UniProtKB/TrEMBL annotation:
<protein>
    <submittedName>
        <fullName>Methyltransferase domain-containing protein</fullName>
    </submittedName>
</protein>
<keyword id="KW-0808">Transferase</keyword>
<feature type="domain" description="Methyltransferase type 11">
    <location>
        <begin position="124"/>
        <end position="224"/>
    </location>
</feature>
<dbReference type="GO" id="GO:0008168">
    <property type="term" value="F:methyltransferase activity"/>
</dbReference>
<keyword id="KW-0489">Methyltransferase</keyword>
<dbReference type="InterPro" id="IPR013216">
    <property type="entry name" value="Methyltransf_11"/>
</dbReference>
<dbReference type="GO" id="GO:0032259">
    <property type="term" value="P:methylation"/>
</dbReference>
<dbReference type="Pfam" id="PF08241">
    <property type="entry name" value="Methyltransf_11"/>
</dbReference>
<dbReference type="InterPro" id="IPR029063">
    <property type="entry name" value="SAM-dependent_MTases_sf"/>
</dbReference>
Amino acid sequence: MTCTVPVGDVEVLACPACLGRLAWEGRASGGLLEEGWLFCSECGSCWQVVEGMPRLLREQEVRGKDRLLRAIYDGLPSLHDPLTTLLTPLLQGRSEAELRERYVSRFELDALVPCSQGRPLRILEVGIGAGANLPLLARALPPGLEVEVWGVDLSTGMLGCCRERLAREGHQGVRLLLADAHSLPFADHSFDRVFEIGGINGYRNPERALAEMARVARPGTPLVVVDEQLDAEARSLRDRVAFRMLTFYTREPHCPRELLPPAAVDIVEEQLSRFYFCLSFRMPPEAPVT
């Protein structure tokens, strides 16, 4: 299994316990992390890298709905994307590709320009899963830009499927981490775009996850969150039963607009389909995130 994180990119990472700087000690191959440890220079925490995959989380902190859903995704990772492709038109009245294209437009990828600091542009997907959004990003990004896509997920099974996609489809510049959305292992304002698709309602603390996404985004960048919400116009018994089966893990799946950081601006809430919302917002310069 090949590694997806170059040694030189360790400087992008931060300790999920205290946000201190991390240092690498271990074996590398071709300039890529292979086996070893990431050490925090401030709190002394250490984080293992196994088969090239940084594991930037504490197992005891994965609990509640997070643990339940991870077990499901780890159990059947290879079935997730095929089932999504099959069931989306039956449940949503539109194809999976059409649904994805609608929210990708909210990323405003066509507005990206080269970074004035000379570094690559960075895009973060929280809950990257098997990487179904990677082809959409590749098509929508302006040509000629130097872009890194960072993906974090709790499920080793889904990340394994994502790595297989990288090898199969040849996507370049993708870095994958085992990490928790509630404690993102990055410094403040690290990313030029941040998005999360299909997971926020299943997080044990969605308010904390939204605050973390806002923290790591550069001021003014679009942040986009998509997940389940029943359309007010979907009144049939069939729709309601199907929606309840889809959202068995939570009592009240809905757009968490009320949980956004108080300083969030340019808030747009849309109903993408019968069962899914799209929430986009930005953080202004120097806005506090709590």
